[in-house]
Design goal:
Number of domains: 3
Bound molecules: arginine
Radius of gyration: 31 Å
Order of helices and strands: HHHHHHEEHHEHEHHEHHEHHHHHHH
Structural class: mainly alpha
Largest sheet: 2 strands, antiparallel
């Protein structure tokens, strides 16, 4: 048998394994395998769980108290070095290897005892869960920041009594309170917050103590570990525990939906900011100019928000694709879960403050909104008028349709048609029909829960304020 030697061996790296290997790993594998560039940021969580593990080992009678305490102090010293800017060595395979190397530098050979009973499999799962729980809390704060801006705009628009067209198929449909439109972007974010919170709950299962796959052979107290690390429950099965990345998928799905919602908000604002709509005027801080066209003011922050949404989707699909092919237990494919997770969360932390800032800077031109309300948009109200007078809705729909056709053919707004046109369209039309054609009256009538009417809107604003306070 011949083996091809492609590349020479490099200086021996600090490794957590290797006893059973006679030769060095190929640089090409090292390069592929090295995850420190991605997982370095897990270090505060790895330190935390390692300190808890040192205590657990003492508790289980594996280490004397003195050694366990020296280990804890050593880990504190490592953390201090990392906080002060210690960077990975070229040979560090991953964050766990790096911390192990630094701990050896701090406390010598005793560091080798820390890995007793644990594996990087339960270690990385625990660190990633801790990171995700932390990330969910920060995401919640960032989402709420954007919701607060929405609520401020909605409150101001409501105070002004601003009305605007609501669109379906991007065609003018019916008049609504502008605050009602603004809040239509608030509630999706409220659901996103609930999904992020659910992902945090999914992450709060402790895998530590599962070892590589079969559980830990030392009598460590997983319950104590759970308490000291702030987990809600213990993983019930060690095979499942080292491969369960459901919480990553759940968070990525939550962020995909959030990205989609932000994209829709951004698109509304970009559209409403065109000269053709003119409902929105952008501020200076979140727009850019053109190198060629002096008149341009481009809503870059919003466009980048819209453009970022497929990133989260890509991250979600990447992770699901990875999980889909795996047998049970830990497989190295799982190492890439963090790349997808961190990319989505990082992107959100860029997008959320920029969207909040861009929205905060928007000025709503309520007179332009009102000008966009044509009386054709009150066609439904006209039909409702006939229904209130005793017509069936089908019959009313037909009569109003004829009036709309006449209005289009003669180039006359519905409210400017002579009464005889109404009378000809349906005998139940009376002179009070012109009141049914007012946008304000149309909005006022839609006062069911969740409608755009004034009482419903007051309740909605109150509910939004309560939601944000939680
Ligand atoms: N860097 C690895 C990861 O992120 C740590 C686990 C390594 N486990 C192993 N059996 N080689 O998944």
């Amino acid at each position: 048998m011949t083996t091809l030697k492609l590349v020479g061996a490099t200086a021996p790296a600090h490794k957590l394994w290797g006893g059973r290997f006679a030769g060095e790993t190929a640089p090409a594998l090292d390069a592929l395998n090295r995850s420190i560039g991605t997982d370095f940021r897990l270090w505060p969580f790895d330190i935390r769980l390692s300190k808890a593990w040192a205590v657990a080992l003492w508790n289980a009678g594996v280490l004397p108290l003195e050694e366990s305490q020296r280990m804890e102090r050593g880990l504190d010293a490592v953390a201090a070095r990392l906080r002060a800017g210690a960077t990975p060595a070229a040979s560090d395979e991953d964050v766990h290897t790096m911390i192990d190397r630094l701990l050896h530098e701090e406390i010598g050979d005793l560091a080798s005892k820390l890995h007793t009973g644990r594996s990087r499999n339960d270690q990385v799962a625990t660190a990633t869960r801790l990171w995700a729980m932390d990330a969910c809390a920060a995401l919640d704060t960032a989402i709420r920041g954007l919701q607060r801006v929405m609520l401020e705009h909605a409150t101001a628009l409501d105070r002004e009594g601003a009305l605007m067209p609501a669109y379906t198929h991007l065609q003018r449909a019916q008049p609504v309170a502008a605050a009602h439109w603004m809040l239509s972007h608030f509630w999706p974010l409220d659901r996103d917050r609930a999904r992020v919170a659910a992902a945090a709950r999914a992450a709060a299962t402790l895998p530590l103590g599962s070892g590589a796959v079969a559980g830990c052979a030392y009598p460590i107290s997983r319950v104590l570990l759970q308490g000291s690390l702030g987990f809600a429950r213990l993983s019930p099965n060690s095979i499942d525990a080292v491969s369960d990345r459901d919480f990553v998928a759940e968070l990525l799905f939550a962020l995909t939906m959030l990205g989609t919602h932000l994209s829709r908000l951004a698109e509304d604002l970009i559209l409403y900011g065109t000269s053709e709509f003119g409902f929105v005027q952008f501020g200076d801080a979140y727009t850019t100019g053109s190198s060629m066209m002096p008149q341009k003011r481009n809503p870059d922050a919003l466009e980048l928000t819209r453009g970022a949404a497929p990133r989260m989707l890509g991250d979600l699909v990447t992770l699901l694709g990875t999980l889909k092919g795996l047998p049970s237990g830990y497989n190295k494919d799982l190492q890439d879960d963090k790349r997808a997770l961190f990319d989505a969360v990082d992107t959100m932390h860029l997008v959320l403050p920029a969207t909040a800032g861009a929205l905060a800077e928007c000025t709503f031109r309520t007179e332009r909104m009102r000008d966009a309300l044509s009386s054709a948009m009150m066609a439904t109200d006209l039909a409702d008028y006939l229904v209130r007078k005793g017509a069936t809705f089908r019959e009313a729909h037909g009569a109003v349709g004829r009036l709309v056709r006449e209005s289009e053919e003669t180039g006359t707004e519905l409210h400017s048609l002579p009464f005889k046109s109404f009378a000809a369209a349906h005998p139940l039309f009376d002179h009070d029909v012109y009141e049914a054609l007012s946008a304000a009256a149309s909005v006022e009538r839609r006062d069911v829960e969740g409608g755009t009417g004034p009482n419903a809107l007051r309740d909605q604003l109150e509910a939004a304020r309560a939601a944000i306070a939680q």
